[in-house]
Amino acid sequence: MKQGNNVWLRWNKKNSYSIAALMVLVDIELTAVPRLGIMLYSFATAQAEEVYREVAAAKSGSVYIAGGPHPSALPEEALQYFDYVVVGEAEETLPELIDAIKKGRSVDYVLGIAYHKDGRTICTPERPAVDLDLYLPSAAASWHPLRSAGGAPGAAPTARRRGSSVAGCGIDP
User: Fold this and answer.
1) CB 25 within 8 A of CB 142
2) Beta bridge partners of 123
3) 43 and 15 Cβ atoms separated by less than 8 Å
4) For the chain, which residues score pLDDT lower than 70?
5) Three-class SS string for the chain?
6) Distance between CA 4 and CA 112 in Å, rounded?
7) Which residues share a beta bridge with 115?
8) What pLDDT, on the 0 to 100 scale, is given for residue 2?
9) How far apart are CA 127 and CA 110, in angstroms?
10) Which residues contact 85 (CB under 8 A, 6 or more apart)?
11) Which of 161, 111, 137, 160 is nearest to 26 (CA)?
12) Per-residue pLDDT tens for 5-28?
């Protein structure tokens, strides 16, 4: 992979479950700071302001992608700081989005994202429900926090729920 084309996930102790899920989807590296390439962030409302400050101050020239509960619920807000927002589950959407970005293709066909184009917010159609049982994070689970806490190896929550409404995209899952 050429320099600047790496995919990075901004690690923090609050997104360890996202890390476990995403590591089996795409070839990512964890980072504690923004880096050159494609930067992924997964966060909840409690982390939003801190994440927004970090991204606004970043000088890496990266493509920034947000996902998780907060950006999914408020994509318009997240798009003030991010290039793309994955709305809902990322299991199928994120690999397609990253592939399109790396190959310089249009992202218009990628279901379940929001982004700005020509001064407008674009929300692609909602992706059909994903069977999360097909995407268990077992391959990346050897480091998983539940393992060190005495939980079963590979244990991770799989009962995630789709949001009830997405502000700014007019999506009612």
Assistant:
1) no
2) 114
3) yes
4) 1-5, 14-21, 23-24, 131-173
5) CCCCCCEEEECCHHHHHHHHHHCCCCCCEEECCCCCCEEEEECCHHHHHHHHHHHHHCCCCCEEEEECHHHHHCHHHHCCCCCEEECCCCCCHHHHHHHHHHHCCCCCCCCCEEEEECCEEEECCCCCCCCHHHHCHHHHHHHCHHHHCCCCCCCCCCCCCCCCCECCCCECC
6) 25
7) 84, 122
8) 37
9) 9
10) 65, 66, 67, 71, 72, 75, 78, 79, 113, 114, 115
11) 137
12) 699 888 877 666 666 667 667 788
Tokens of 122: 């674009």
| In the chain, where the domains are located | 7-145
Place of tokens 């994955």: 86
Class assignment of domain 7-145?
A: alpha beta
pLDDT at position 29: 86
Which residue's entry shows tokens 């077992």?
Answer: 138
Place of tokens 């102790």: 13
User: For residues 65 and 51, what is the distance between their CA atoms, to the nearest angstrom?
Assistant: 12
Which has the closest alpha carbon to 95: 21, 2, 158, 25? 25
